[in-house]
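INFO  loader      accepted 1 record
INFO  loader      residues=154
INFO  predictor   begin
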Amino acid sequence: MAEELRGSLQGAGLKIGIAAARFNDAIVDRLIAGANDGLTRHGVELNNITVARCPGSWELPLLCKRMALSGKYDALIALGCVIKGGTAHFDYVAGQSCAGISQVSVDTDVPVIFGVLTTDTVEQAMDRAGIKMGNKGYDAAEAAIEMVDVLRQL
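INFO  predictor   done
INFO  writer      dumping tokens
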């Protein structure tokens, strides 16, 4: 049988950074609360979680890069919310934010979890921030813990 590595959800001792956009803060604040809940439920101490805010999702890649390069964090969670409007602005911000955050993870070997909501409406965003469809911040927290563990096994 082939060897299979799987990350656990044991967060004790981990230091996690959360990079969060201020734009659409009513939604992003709910994502942060979900991430904090997910991290602490899996053993990460609240004093081992740092939240750094930036203006919007466009700025998240640089904030994540600086946090990753600091060497202070086992994993990062990028949280934001981009809601589609009537212009191409959504496509630029959502696409570049995603690409930049992904690149930080690859370049630094620090897991950076993409928790930026990209939705058509405010209602869809609220649903994904804990109203109807769970909380994507919580999901991102679990992914961060799991990635740290699986990478440590390699």
